[in-house]
Design a protein that fits this description.
heterodimer, A: 0% strand, B: mainly alpha, two-stranded antiparallel ribbon, elongated
Chain lengths: 66, 313
Amino acid sequence: MVGGFTKSISSFTYRTFFKKESTYFTTVVASGVAFSIAFNTMFEKYWDSKTAGTKWVDIKGRYIKE
Amino acid sequence: MFSRNAFNTFKQASQNASKRFSTQAGSAKSYNVLMGAAAATAVGSGVSLYYLNKNSAHANMEADGLHPADHPFPQKKLMGTFDHASIRRGFQVFKEVCAACHSMDLVYWRNLVDVAYTEEEVREMAAEYQYTDGPDDSGDMFERPGKLTDPIPRPYANEEAARAANGGALPPDLSLITKARHGGVDYIYALLTGYCDPPAGVEVREGLNYNPYFPGGAIAMAQNIFDGVVEFEDGTPNTASQISKDVVTFLNWAAEPELDERKKIGVKALMLFSTLTVIALWIKRNRWHTLKSRKVVFNSPKNWQQQQQQKKN
């Protein structure tokens, strides 16, 4: 049986993820991985649209011989 | 003995001076005003002197070379990258016009693959040149067609040969030229397009050419880029300015091949670090607010006896 606790999202988050060092560490690493994947994917899309037409991959179609 | 007297006098004088110049009690505002005025004077005088020096005219400005104009090369912007079609055209210009005199020892055929040419194209281009290769089984050097691992071929075997063929002047290696010259791409472009007749009274000796952008005004290289010297395969109009722009872009790539990747990583870094800085500042202020807003009260010993009596009562 769990002891008395505040019924709020922040309290829930604290108890489940931040209270024990093992779960805290796992949370940090997992959110780092997730953020990294998400940020890199979104940034790549943004960067490719910003540099569209100037990169080698954009012009190489003209020079590939079948 | 005399020096000790002088030292003591100096010490007295500086102490008196600091007493005179120190602010009175309760004038933190005037102290801040004084500090602000001092800082403004330092910064203002530094900036003024810099621009006065930069924009002044003097009798020997020819030695500095005419300052080149600011051209809108896309890779110059904070988040700008290369136009790879321009790099491809620029390499064609280099190969047909510049490689006759200039070496590019630090660029290898393989560096061009997937930057401006496909691998097959580079293999074909490299194979057009003959390279001397290591001793064979009987100890002789032999000639073989170029491979991807070979450097862009040198026009002259060594510096002496280059000087002999160019009237004593050495055509510099162009691998890093845009980083090696003050003014960078703007300077090289202005140089290539800036040939003109010397102004009245300026004599340029036999063998040299007048170029106002070259420090000293007299450059050994003659103008090589004119309208139509190179035919572009993609149909781009081959004016002298277009040819110069493309070859300068190629030279910039040769000096900074990592530019595209560096700018990409740089933008990412700016975004992430600024966010993390804001978060860090907020966390610091959050953790410190208890300490910073606490009140400390001094209980003077004068009050101790009174407080003892009050407690008894």
